[in-house]
Design a protein that fits this description.
Strand content of chain A: 5-15%
Order of helices and strands of chain A: HHEHEHEHEHEHEHHEHHHHHH
Strand content of chain B: 5-15%
Number of helices of chain A: 15
Structural class of chain A: alpha/beta
Number of helices of chain B: 20
Oligomer: heterodimer
Radius of gyration of chain A: 23 Å
Number of strands of chain B: 5
Mean pLDDT of chain B: 83
Radius of gyration of chain B: 28 Å
Number of domains of chain A: 3
Low-confidence stretches of chain B: none
Order of helices and strands of chain B: HHHEHEHHEHEHEHHHHHHHHHHHH
CATH superfamily of the largest domain in chain B: P-loop containing nucleotide triphosphate hydrolases
Helix content of chain A: 55-70%
Largest interface: A-B, 58 and 50 residues
CATH architecture of the largest domain in chain B: 3-Layer(aba) Sandwich
Shape of chain B: extended
Strand order of the largest sheet of chain B: 2-3-4-1-5
Strand order of the largest sheet of chain A: 2-3-4-1-5
CATH superfamily of the largest domain in chain A: P-loop containing nucleotide triphosphate hydrolases
CATH class of the largest domain in chain A: Alpha Beta
CATH topology of the largest domain in chain A: Rossmann fold
CATH class of the largest domain in chain B: Alpha Beta
Structural class of chain B: alpha/beta
Chain lengths: 319, 393
């Protein structure tokens, strides 16, 4: 059955179909050909093909029976390492089907695990290395503890280039009978920040409105997806209306379920466009960094962000 | 004259009088039907005031049995135990009445004093009579051995409408009248604890103005208002360091009140300073939690009172009406509202091999094509979820 969700429908299922990441593909293909792979660590930004490659590996290894030999977990969704361990244990208890002597566990967003949890994961990897191979995926390899890194073959995925993205979009254009203007491609690429999944999602959303993909339409879809309201929050703060800024901030965070860290990310990017002195921009950036640090450490994001907004009020006063 | 409290007076006598626990009653009935060799013991567990002990007495009444009540200390006292158990374990009793052994509130047995619990377990094995045990938290790890040896029946918190109905009935029998709003207030405040509600009801009925029974809650707010006035209006002084002692509210809640009201009083630089203090308070709060190092409370306290107060340069004059914190309520309301969004994101996440958080983050981008019926079918969305999507757009 082909999917109606394009990220699935156009997900490559052969090594040859993957766009970009040529170096990685060559090495991984050779490993899979030898029917013996070590633990793998895929690191790189979102939407660069980490999960896709993992899926291709299992399909190549196990053919039809891949679903019986593959367990997919997402570290940021599982409640604690114990759940992960339990699932791994249950899965690894039985032997693999077919002529490959191991099963594959794909642990996505492994960098969401604390260092302590990663230690526990390392033990689990060792205990089941007879029957299981792990493919870990993460955005930042530096957040993976050394002992795990040293047990894995690491592959660094790069952001897709514009020509890669264009290739993918053109392929979908033909298959779905769309008409896409070159400016639209440019815009989709900009809006996706090199994340292939976002590209396809933006494209499908736009196409579900009209098969004529013109730049205006793309812009509407992208801006409705962007936390543009963050800009409104900052505008209120800079103009001195803290109460409104605070209210709007809570509203945005709740309604769009945006995390504190996502808000910070948006704020940090907007600082450079604010109508304040360069000196103050530096000051605000510093304060923003401090706020992000506090949130990452576990502080209440809303309290920390309010404190940050108060600094924007000051900046609005030229202080 | 010794008049029983209402909680005693209106304790149910028959199964028919027990409210809102029909499932538990069913299980108890089945339990009593079993032959004694297979029976073991049954544990009634649930929060206070949900009717655990009452149910035990109702069964005794309905089956015309006597109750032998044991408590935690009896279990450590071998002599006493024998004294009670000898007649209890004899097959025939003189009165020809059945017997039920009730061990009430086993939570009281401390973890250190494990003897009592293992005594209880061996008692279950040897007893010829049905045993009923009540506990608040049966999932406590000290009960792990006990859990393996018993049947468990959970009693749920009683919903506030049932509590209100029961109160109305009691008032009718007592020939008293209390305003419906007050009754609603009492029943909501009881959080499912029927005993607490009936106690409140009895006190309220004896007051000239029954509404005063709920003033308790409001008093708290009077304290926080005057505390905030002192912090926000006046110059910082050392008496502020102790100000929260007189506020009958957990620190967590005080923090929310201050957070909500900083911007009603402060502007510009003082605003920034006050929030910086608040942000530090929150950091200490997290450190206490993480490291279980309670001395940090001192800093939390000082920064939240003196720290916020010292953010201003001059005293504030005039009257400010402070606001109740609304953030928690808003968060709660929103959670209700976006529940469907979360379940949709979950299905989508699994389907396209990404994490749930990521799916939520992408939601605005994918929302448009989630409206397509083919996609909805593919993701197996429920009618409620589809309704949510249609409403959002």
């Amino acid at each position: 059955m082909t999917s109606e969700i394009w990220t699935e429908k156009y997900r490559p299922d052969k090594f040859e179909d993957i766009v970009g990441q040529e170096g990685i593909i060559k090495k991984v293909k050779a490993l899979v050909g030898s029917l013996n792979i070590p633990h793998l660590l895929f690191t790189g930004p979102a939407g660069t093909g980490k999960s896709t490659l993992a899926l291709i590996i299992v399909k190549e290894l196990f053919g039809e029976s891949w679903k019986d030999n593959y367990l997919e977990l997402n570290a940021s969704d599982e409640r604690g390492i114990n759940i992960v361990r339990e699932k791994v244990k249950n899965f690894a208890r039985t032997k693999s089907f077919g002529n490959v002597p191991f099963k594959i566990i794909f642990l996505d967003e492994a960098d969401a695990l604390t260092p302590e949890a990663q230690q526990a994961l390392r033990r689990t990897m060792e205990n089941y290395s007879q029957t299981c191979r792990f493919i870990l995926s993460c955005n930042y390899s530096s957040k993976i503890i050394d002992p795990i890194q040293s047990r894995c073959a690491m592959f660094r995925f790069k952001l897709l280039e514009k020509k890669d993205i264009e290739k993918i979009i053109r392929k979908i254009e033909t298959a779905e009978k769309l008409q896409i203007k070159p400016e639209s491609i440019e815009m989709i690429y900009e809006g996706s920040e090199g994340d292939c999944r976002r590209c396809i999602n933006i494209l499908q959303s736009t196409a579900s409105v009209s098969p004529l993909i013109n730049p205006d339409l793309v812009a509407t879809i992208i801006s409705s997806a962007k936390p543009k309201d963050i800009l409104v929050v900052l505008d209120y703060a800079i103009s001195g209306d803290f109460q409104k800024a605070r209210e709007k901030l809570l509203d945005v965070m709740l309604k769009e379920s945006i995390s504190g860290q996502d808000v910070i990310k948006a704020i940090q990017k907007e600082i450079w466009n604010l109508p304040v002195e360069p000196e103050l921009k530096v000051k605000l950036t510093e304060k923003t960094g401090e706020t992000e640090f506090r949130i990452v450490e576990g502080s209440d994001p809303f309290i920390q962000l309010q404190s940050l907004l108060a600094s924007f009020v000051l900046a609005g006063l030229g202080k | 004259m010794n008049t029983p409290t209402w909680t005693e007076k209106y304790r149910p006598k028959t199964f028919a009088e027990v409210r809102g626990q029909s499932l538990a009653i069913e299980k108890l009935r089945n339990f009593l039907k079993k032959p004694s060799t297979e029976r073991g013991a049954i544990v009634l567990h649930g929060p206070p005031g949900t009717g655990k002990t009452s149910l035990a007495y109702v069964i005794a009444n309905e089956t015309k049995s006597e109750i032998f009540e044991l408590n935690a200390s009896d279990l450590r006292n071998k002599e006493k135990l024998n004294e009670i158990l000898r007649p209890a374990t004899e097959q025939k009793s003189l009165t020809k009445k059945g017997k039920i052994i009730l061990v009430d509130e086993v939570d009281g047995i401390s973890e250190v004093d494990r003897g009592g619990l293992s005594e209880l377990v061996s008692l279950i094995e040897s007893s010829a009579h049905p045993m009923i045990i009540t506990a608040n938290d049966i999932w406590d790890k000290k009960f792990s051995e006990l859990r393996r040896n018993v049947e468990m029946v959970q009693l749920k918190e009683i919903d506030y409408k049932t509590i209100k109905d029961i109160m109305i009935e009691i008032l009718r029998k007592e020939k008293k009248f209390i305003d419906g709003d007050v009754l609603t207030n009492i029943s909501v405040k009881s959080k499912g604890d029927l005993r607490a509600a009936i106690n409140d009801l009895q006190i309220a009925s004896s007051l000239e103005n029954p509404a005063e029974i709920i003033i308790d809650e409001r008093n708290k707010e009077v304290d926080i208002f005057s505390a905030m006035r002192l912090i926000f209006k006046g110059k910082p002084n050392n008496s502020l360091l102790k100000i929260f002692d007189s506020v009958n509210m957990p620190m967590e809640e005080i923090l929310l009140w201050i957070e909500e009201n900083i911007p009603t009083e402060y502007r510009g630089e003082e605003l920034a300073k006050a929030y910086e203090a608040l942000s530090r308070v929150d950091i200490f709060k997290k450190r206490i939690y993480r490291q279980q190092y309670w001395r940090f409370v001192v800093y939390e306290n000082a920064l939240l009172s003196y720290g916020v107060s010292a953010a201003k340069k001059t005293e504030k004059l005039g009257f400010t009406s402070y606001k109740k914190p609304t953030r928690i309520l808003k968060m709660w309301l929103n959670n209700q509202k976006i529940e469907k969004k979360k379940t949709i994101a979950k299905k989508y996440a699994k389907y396209v091999h990404i994490g749930e958080k990521r799916a939520l983050y992408e939601f605005p981008t994918i929302r448009t094509f989630l409206l397509k019926p083919e996609v909805q079918e593919e993701l197996n969305l429920t009618t409620e979820e589809i309704e949510y999507l249609n409403k959002e757009n």
